Amino acid sequence: MAGMEDESKNTGMAPATQLVHLGRDPKRFDGFVNTPVVRGSTVLSPTYDDLIHHRGRYSYGRRGNPTTEGLETALKALEGGDGVVLTPSGLSAVSIALLSVLGTGDHLLMVDTAYRPTRTVCDTVLKRLGVETTYYDPLIGAGIEGLIRDNTRAIFLEAPGSQSFEMQDVPAIAAVARAHDIVTLIDNTWATPLFFKPHSAGVDISIQAGTKYIGGHADLNLGTISAIGPAWKKVIATHGNLGITISPDDAALGARGLRTLGVRLAHHQRAALDMATWLQQRPEVSRVLHPALPSDPGHTIWKRDFRGASGLFSMILKPVPERALAAFFDTLTLFGMGYSWGGYESLAIPFDCRDYRTATTWEVEGPAVRLHIGLDDVDDLKADLCRAFAAMADAAT
Ligand SMILES: *Cc1c(COP(=O)(O)O)cnc(C)c1O
């Protein structure tokens, strides 16, 4: 078989080498380093016999082409699962994964700290289909067993938690689920498979918003679903039956992002930890929420299970009036104000989890701010924050 299908030769390599080599086969494409962008719906068969026996490597554009296959193959090797499907956004990866394993009358356990639109999938589409959702505390660990009902079919995790960065004991929850024959799914966007491998921790379905670090340049929406065992059969069937595809251009952007994912994440990790440590010393900051900080409540679990930390974390400021918070944000010039993250650019947004969480209470002493530390020079970013803190103090008085 061609190189793209045989990744076994790459599995013993370090992640940096894997990222360079996985999912491309220059020999097959006249020496071109990258897999070409193949546009196509119809795939012609050379003979009647090939047509009726489906002997071709590809059958129809919706079912995949060399460009999408290259990215899927690379991700499959990185995730270490039985296969990967691509979807047009991170949220569609979440919804398709959930629709793969849930049906009318089923019960879902969803972590209370999930990405907010993931909750909306549960509270609208799944609810309409007759799936009941119970939200659970991210710190529940093996205590999740107490929430399991006869009809519980799936447990969804996200670690660290969206915006507030609580760590979950993933192996403990996965072990309980396995003992009850319940499927586990995790949104692993923050860590990527470079820093956490969900399947090794016993999780059946691993989801990424490839929009974030895989894309890495704020120019792509992409979702990925990796799965193992019986869950993989369900995911590939549901994805195919629903007719989900992504464009070859987006697949090529995703593959290009993968090539630099390792060096980008190493920088994001170093810069964000440097910034988080610096912010801990700032008089304006009450607390920093970042699991790689030794003082963080989730640090022990993070250190046990994760190989690294990415560039996204939050801070709780000491109380200030809203006009002072507005002055802080309006003074930032290097940090942009905008949703999403994982690109080369640095970002800052305010957030308030009181608006939507139901299984936990969000009680904080001051305004909450989420930061993404991009590829800018860290000292320049600190200077930007210093100017914003000064403007905040001016506006407060
Ligand atoms: C952004 C994000 C998503 C959704 O990705 P989109 O491509 O915006 O749909 C899902 N989960 C997490 C944790 C995210 O940050």
Automatic annotation (TrEMBL):
It is an enzyme of class 4 (lyase). The keyword Lyase applies. Its EC number is 4.4.1.13. Keywords: Lyase, Pyridoxal phosphate. It catalyses: L,L-cystathionine + H2O = L-homocysteine + pyruvate + NH4(+). It holds the Pfam family Cys_Met_Meta_PP. Gene3D superfamilies: Aspartate Aminotransferase, domain 1, Type I PLP-dependent aspartate aminotransferase-like (Major domain). GO terms for molecular function: cysteine-S-conjugate beta-lyase activity. The keyword Glycosyltransferase does not apply. It comes from the Bacteria. InterPro entries: Cys/Met-Metab_PyrdxlP-dep_enz, Cys_b_lyase_bac, PyrdxlP-dep_Trfase, PyrdxlP-dep_Trfase_major, PyrdxlP-dep_Trfase_small. Its cofactor is pyridoxal 5'-phosphate. Belongs to the trans-sulfuration enzymes family. NCBIfam families: cysta_beta_ly_B. This is Cystathionine beta-lyase. The lineage of its organism: Bacteria, Pseudomonadati, Pseudomonadota, Alphaproteobacteria, Hyphomicrobiales.
